Amino acid sequence: MAGEIVGGVLGSGVVGAFLGAYITTRVVVYRIGQASTGPPAYQVMGRLVSVVIPTLMEEEYLPKLLETIRNQTYQPIEIVVADSSPPPSSDETLEICQAYKAKYIFVPKLNLPHARNVGAMEAQGEILVFVDADCLFTPTYIQDVVAALDEGYVLAHGADPVAEGVFFPAASLMLRSWLKPKAYTTGRGIAIWKSAFNELGGYDETLDPTKGFREDLDLGKRVRQKYGSKAIQLLRTSYLGESARRIKYLGTAEWNRVRGVRGSKTIPI
Questions:
Q1: For labeling, which of 77, 109, 143, 264 is most exposed (least CB within 10 Å)?
Q2: At CA 116, angle to CA 110 and CA 120, rounded to 5?
Q3: Within 10 A of 158 (CB to CB), how many other CB atoms are there?
Q4: CATH number of 2-266: 3.40.1000.20, 3.90.550.10, 1.10.10.10, 3.80.10.10?
Q5: pLDDT tens-digit map of 154-208
Q6: pTM of the model
């Protein structure tokens, strides 16, 4: 009898948690929609922020991301696109950048940390925000991470759940918001002082993601080593949504299909 009661309580707790996560993901999707369809109700002004976006054949995703950047509650924002696409994709990406007044840089070397570093080198802002092209910001995201840096943190980032589908978004929200360690600094939405980024030497370009390395997690590790364990802030209620293109069957990535292939080598996006 006691076991049945405990099981019932645990079961209802799991159902309640999933329901709460599902409702939250619907709010996140709604907020992304706000940033995708028009300017915010207010804007705050501060120091220049540069959003760095590495791209490889991202014409389908890039305009949607740039729209959510244009409609942020924070200004001013500089957009830097570091593109490694072959023609005609590179030409289309350049046209998209021109339409959104983004700085376009062609990066012939197919290496994701290198593209991030090249974009950061060209950026003029005091603060760098790194994001993948298949992500979408909620309206206050950049305002939130900048506020965290102004409080004294070296690196700040929000939660990055998948924002497509029904079941997986809720599960990913629990993992990437509620249970996410603050040190887990992916390339989706981190903000860092440019001075600190330069002191650290940027992303380690020898950590090729196609060989299983995580150059984004390594950057967070080096931030903690140099500036202390309290240098990173995770904002669990500030969201950007990631597309489901890398996800299949509860998280198995279709690397060859979604990340692009050159010869026999899989290239990360």
A1: 264
A2: 140
A3: 28
A4: 3.90.550.10
A5: 999 999 988 887 777 888 888 888 888 888 898 899 999 999 999 999 999 998 7
A6: 0.87
